[in-house]
Amino acid sequence: MSSRIPIVPENTEPLPRLRENEGMLSWVASVDHKQIGIMYLICCMVFFLIGGLEALLIRIQLAQPEFGFLSPEVYNQMFTMHGTTMIFFVVMPFLIGVGVYLVPLMIGARDMAFPRLNALSFWLFVFGGILIYYSFLTQSGAPDVGWFAYSPLSEKPFSLNKGPTYWALGLLATGIGSVASGLNNVVTILTMRTPGMTMRRLPLFVWMILVTSFLLIFVIPIITSAFAMMLLDRLLGATFFTPAHGGSAILWQHFFWGFGHPEVYILILPAFGIISEVIPVFSRKPIYGYEFVAGSTVAIGLLSLGVWVHHMFAVGLGDVTNLYFSFASMLIAIPTGVKVLNWVATMWGGKIIFATPMLFATAFIIEFVIGGLTGVAIASVPIDWVVTDSYFIVAHFHYALFGGSLFAIFAGVYYWFPKFTGRMMSETLGKWHFWLTVIGFNLTFFIQHFLGMMGMPRRTYTYHDFPYWGSMNLISTIGAIVLAVSVLVFVWNILQSLKRGEKAGGNPWNAWTLEWATTSPPAVHNFDLVPPVRGRRPLWDLAHPDMPDEPDAKVV
Amino acid sequence: MEKLGGLFNPSSLEMDAMTDLTVYIIVISAAILGIIAFAVAYIIIRYRKKPGDDTEPYQDFGSLKLEIVWTAIPVAIVAVLFLLTCSTMNVIQPPVKDHEPDLVITGHQWWWEIYYPKSGVVTANELHIPLGKYLLIRLESIDVIHDFWVPELARKIDAVPGHPNYMWIEATKPGVYLGACAEFCGAQHANMRIRVIVENEEEFKEWEKQQLVIPATPRAGLAGEGAKLFQEKACMNCHTIMGTAAAANVGPNLTHLNKRQTIGAGVLTNSPENLAKWLTNPQKYKQGSLMPNMKLSDNDVQALVAYLEALK
User: Fold this and answer.
1) Half-sphere exposure for A209 (CA within 13 Å, toward CB)
2) A237 or A556: whose pLDDT is higher?
3) Among B16, B38, B59, which would you mutate to test the A interface (most chain A Cβ atoms within 10 Å of its Cβ)?
4) A160 CB near a chain B CB, below 8 Å?
5) B237 vs chain A: nearest CA distance in angstroms?
6) How far apart are CA A14 and CA A276, in angstroms?
7) Fewer CB under 10 Å: which end of chain B, C or N?
8) In a 10 Å sphere around its CB, with 0-12 CB exposed, 13-18 middle and 19+ buried, how is residue A218 labelled?
């Protein structure tokens, strides 16, 4: 097309080609953002299977009251490792990985700003994961003090085993990697956009990665310093968190949740980004209220820094403290609600194609709203006093992080798989995966709201045979088994589609952002030509020159 | 139909207030979820792409008016929720000021120590409280963070080492209520259970009086042998029995063990057979518990059971 003008200057050096890049060593040594992104996704998939297996073992142990499938020690290791794995080694790196792959493509850049730093971030993540899982092979076993590792339980006098030391060291390593990748994203997004790609035209996924990256830069150092203090306590006999020797048990919680609450948004904002890309494409409409969807992300990012004490309402910090944090937490419902309503409005009046990515995105809205509403409920101090540390909380955050983040990740995988691999995923298997996930997920977690309200505490390896507890837990366990089957279908779909999936072509979904303007998979140099950017949907403008999004926009 | 516990059976003034608040919030949340689910269902039916229709729909970029409306509505809902939150907290958490606590509860790995400062009664894992009395409870911890939780009776409150907490409670229905530790506290977090016996004032006074009596130490027979063993074996290094030399605080106070309903912080019901099983190998019933397997002979176990049974 004549309107395509070369933006990226002609490279005088010969560029490496994919063919030369196929050996294992070329992957390990790669600094290409796409190869690093793919490696992130593969590693996360492996950790997802491990974390899922841990979840299944937990649910089997809880299938009946007083069941003896796992010993208390092993159970405690399982729930610690399940939480740690899913948060630090599945959802967070998965979203970072998708970002690493897509951000340069979406903004029309050749690579990340610091390609080698990008590789370092990835390898630190792998190293941290290996370190933590290595602890299973040591004599004292894996960490068993919960993913929150409250002091003084995680301190030497109460946990002589080495698990928590491996835990702190491993997360310290991945944490440094995450800060580096946050910095890399910020610099890439702010400085490497193709001409015409103003901040107001950034794809929403990129906006959300940008806010997430700022959060990473601000909050990971909090927990990294806390890990360092914990290691000083455990290895060198300092007493930062040991009240018996002048330390503070509550200090750890402030550090942990000072990081841990924004972390929740690190896990959900990029997921919001995926949803904000998928829904418009499959509704065939632009996102409704772009400025509000982007702006509410910034609001959520800022608010998330001031709400950590809502994890500590039962600690006894006083009513004034509790009420301030209660109010600040409830405020987050406002920008989040704005987002949800904008997604619904985007679908309204569209011509919706319910391919697998859209199925997951639609289900995401409902599941995430349930998780969000229970989140508002527990922001209210007295309700938190009733349900905190009960199965109600387990249900709440699984609706937010599984019904939310993970559903969005599934939508994203089905949506971008053709771009990553050049092949489509099977729609039939995709639909099986979708329905099994929806059924299994709701069967597992919805009933836990009631278990929590009836008084079942979390993190217990067994429970008394109170009325209905046994049968309700059994239902939950059956749901978990259905979920396990759905994951197998998903993995099978990926493997099958890699081998014999239909060829995708450059833009199988007829989407509008720049990553679809190149081949699938993209060449090492990303674009031969970057299309002109005169609006938020460059490929729409190309396809509909008669009605561009911004009719007055000038070609840069 | 068997009775559901927790929020479904509030049995104190405090839980009544919290249950009301929960019901309000559930109603509001269900309404919001209903509206969104209905809208999505309508969209799925109404706006599905028809086969053969390849035209693009109307390209709608948003509306400032609508954005303002759906920002304002959540603001109003949040305001209402926050006011409800404040007023409920006022009911359940009046200032402590200079009240003396009626009860001091101390969390241990993995059992509860209970002390009545006004009468001097010390017991473990079973809390007797009078019906209809407004009580101030002070929560402490000796080791790690625990959390006192009896779902029908009260809010959760952490027992934090070096940071005592206070909680008000007024039970409104007599009965036995089961609770647990809610904050993960190590290997046997699951078996750190507590029973609260709410009884009318006369019954409570009676119980308190009985608890203050120092039991006679048996001198003869199997029980006498048990009493001697208790002092000779390591038992006295961890437990207290009033009227004897045993005065340690690592394990529960056993002065009136016979009067308790369970042993091992709720692991087994209290009977001579279970006591014998427990003494033979506590690790079998509470793996990781701080009470070791003392490798007692059957005869020693029988003697100790006879002694502990005599502690009425």
Assistant:
1) 33
2) A237
3) B59
4) no
5) 20
6) 37
7) N
8) middle
Instruction: Please give the torsion angle defined by the CA atoms of residues B94, B100, B103 and B109, in that order, rounded to the nearest 10 degrees.
Output: 90
Alpha helices in chain B (DSSP H): 13-46, 64-92, 201-212, 221-232, 235-238, 272-280, 282-285, 298-309
Which residue is associated with the tokens 């303002």?
Answer: B68
- Say if the Cβ atoms of B47 and A319 lie within 8 Å: no
Peptide bond into A152 cis (omega under 30): yes
What's the per-residue H, E or C state across A147-191?
CCCCCCCCCCCCCCCCHHHHHHHHHHHHHHHHHHHHHHHHHHHHH
* Cα nearest neighbour of B88 on chain A: A382
Q: Taking residues A485-490, what's their average pLDDT? A: 97
Positions in chain B whose pLDDT score sits under 50: 1
Chain B residues with CB-CB distance to A158 below 8 A: 109, 143-144, 186
Question: For residues A92 and A528, what is the distance between their CA atoms, to the nearest angstrom?
Answer: 32
Asked if B22 and A377 come within 8 Å (Cβ–Cβ), the reply is: yes
Which 50-89 residues of chain A touch chain B by CB within 8 A? 71-73, 76
Rounded Cα–Cα distance for residues A216 and A366 (Å): 28
Yes or no, beta carbons of B66 and A345 under 8 Å apart = yes
Model confidence at A555, pLDDT cuts 50, 70, 90, reads: low
Residues 6+ apart with CB under 8 A from A316: B139, B157, B158, B160, B163, B165, B166
pLDDT of residue B58: 92
Calculate how close chain A gets to B216, using CA atoms only, in Å. 35
Across the interface, whether the CB atoms of A334 and B71 are under 8 A apart is answered: yes
Mean pLDDT for chain A? 93
For residue B126, give the 3-state DSSP assignment: strand
Give the residue-averaged pLDDT of A131-150: 93
Q: Which residue in the set A330, A373, A390 is minimally distant from B33, CB to CB?
A: A373
Q: What was the ipTM of the complex prediction?
A: 0.95
